[in-house]
Amino acid sequence: MSTPLSPRDYFEVVLPTILRWKGPAAAALGVNLCFCVTGKGGGTWTIRLRPPAAGVVPGSEWKADLTIKITAAEMLNILAGTFDARRAIGEGNIELKGDVTILRRVGFLFQSGGSQTEVRAPNGATPAKS
Amino acid sequence: MPVVPLESLSAAVATLQQAFAGREGKAVSAEEIAKHATAKGFPDADLAVAVWKHLEAQAGEVTRNVVERRLSEDKISKALFYVLLDPEFAKTKRSKRFKELSHDFRAVLRQLAQRLGLAMSEIATVAETTGMGLSPTIRELADEFAAWLRQAHGE
């Protein structure tokens, strides 16, 4: 498990499982969120948070309310708990297109059940460079 | 000191790697895998066999029943993920140690989801303060204002 999880594994294995656990609460948001992960190990996935059941669809065929373009390195930082939004955006590693108000709602959905100190990587973990 | 879920899973993967060592590339029976996994201290022999079978299936048609020569920690941990996520497999398991491993695995998954949630909230904070990725309503208003300006300048 010391090998970092790849974005593909995250979007195709981890996230669908989490969304199943969240159940109707995830589908109730009624939005589509597209993640376009650029660079080595990247890909495009659309998180469908709509009834009847939330899930993840590879590609961008579903019309997205918000598209997040992010480098694979920053995606790995998110998964490792070493992400710094201000730095990532400042360095141009993240681009947003669409309704940004969705971010808070989806963020809250995924964050529910854990405090920031539980979620963050322990001190000393270094972020990956793009 | 409480067991950290990720450390518990890492230990499980390391044990499987030891149990599988030297058997890569060979057609090994389930009994043999179970025996070696138990000898190395893996918590659940059936789970070890299921992971091995998953790795075999991943090896593809040409090399059916033959797992690649050197199994990486990454490959084993992914196979363990898949097996632990299989509800049919979980239904058949009742042992305390399997439940502990499954519980640790779920804790790791929850943490991964929470990290994405936290990142999205932080991006939202920066986006709100910098005007990044303006919301559709604001964009429409900006377009309307630009059209009005053009009209005012007689373009």
Written description of the protein model:
The complex is a heterodimer of chains A (about 130) and B (about 160). With about 130 residues, chain A is of the alpha+beta class. Chain A has a single domain, classed as Nonspecific Lipid-transfer Protein, Chain A (2-Layer Sandwich). Chain A has six helices and five strands. Chain A is globular, with a radius of gyration of 14 Å. Chain B has about 160 residues and is an all-alpha fold. In chain B, helix 2 packs across helix 3 and helix 3 packs across helix 4. Chain B is elongated and about 85 Å long. The mean pLDDT of chain B is about 80. Chains A and B meet through helix 1, helix 3, helix 4, strand 5 and helix 5 of A and helix 1, helix 4 and helix 6 of B.
Output the CATH class name of chain A.
Alpha Beta
What is the count of helical runs of chain B?
7
- Beta-strand content estimate of chain A: 15-25%
What general form of chain B does the structure show? Answer: elongated
Could you tell me the mean pLDDT of chain B?
Answer: 78
In the CATH hierarchy, what is the architecture of chain A at level 2?
2-Layer Sandwich
Order of helices and strands of chain B: HHHHHHH
Radius of gyration of chain B: 26 Å
Order of helices and strands of chain A: HHEEEEHHEHH
Low-confidence stretches of chain B: none
At the fold tier of CATH, the topology name of chain A is Nonspecific Lipid-transfer Protein, Chain A
Going by helix content, strand content and strand pairing, the class of chain B is mainly alpha
Count up the domains of chain B: 1
